[in-house]
Specification:
- The chain is mainly α.
- 58% of the residues lie in helices and 0% in strands.
- Among the domains are: 103 residues, no CATH class; 39 residues, no CATH class.
- It is built from seven helices and no strands.
- Helix 1 packs parallel to helix 3, helix 3 runs antiparallel to helix 4 and helix 5 crosses helix 6.
Length: 207
């Protein structure tokens, strides 16, 4: 289980994120906002920020406090959340080059992978597939693995729905979710059209 310090921090971060969401909705008139589904609506109130400068000050404090959390994975997760949120607010307040948006929103290099990096990934894949009994060169191994594991297009929605359902049940066994299961993620297939994808962050204190 997570430490009390981390659970308390999660509530602070969630409230702060709701505050940025409210600020963004107000200045952009974007009805979707940042927090697509507020699962803490009954227990958490948005932090109140007068502008992005005030919100940035609060999130810089959160970033410093994230470094003190006991769990290494939570330190990394919340450091990245703070980094992404600070970058988002800078983008809204003063603009941010696209390369910086990629690197600071998503925490990935804003450049193609080098051949050395690709070679390291190829070697890792080859070792994994060798260990699983796949033979031939890397292309043949990839084709054989895909043939065995790829989900047919007409079964993708059902397969994902089943996995989401299982994930909800497994989460509930260790951390109560403050929402009915009907609020969980749902799959809608699209083809031949542009679409957006967003992620939602929420935190709850277990009873």
């Amino acid at each position: 289980m997570l430490s009390e310090a981390t659970l308390a921090y999660g509530e602070r971060a969630a409230s702060a994120l709701l505050g940025v969401d409210a600020l963004y909705r107000n200045e952009s008139q974007d009805e979707d906002g940042l927090v697509v589904l507020n699962m803490g609506a009954e227990t958490l109130s948005p932090a109140v920020y007068t502008d992005y400068a005030a919100a940035t000050d609060a999130w810089q404090t959160l970033a410093r406090d994230a470094a003190t959390l006991p769990e290494p994975d939570r330190r990394r997760y919340y450091a990245q959340l703070c980094g992404s949120t600070l970058a988002f607010m800078q983008w809204r307040a003063e603009g941010l080059p696209f390369a910086d948006q990629l690197s600071r929103f998503l925490h990935v290099p804003a450049a193609p992978a080098s051949e050395a990096e690709l070679d390291a990934l190829r070697d890792e894949l080859r070792q994994l597939w060798n260990g699983l009994g796949y033979s031939g060169d890397l292309e043949a191994q990839a084709a054989a693995w895909q043939a065995r594991n790829r989900v047919p297009a007409d079964e993708v929605a059902g397969t994902l729905a089943a996995l989401f359902d299982e994930a909800w049940d497994r989460t509930e066994r260790v951390l109560p979710i403050p929402a009915p299961k009907s609020d969980g993620m749902r799959v809608r297939g699209v083809s031949g059209v542009a679409f957006n994808a967003r992620a939602t962050t929420w935190s709850a204190r277990s009873s």
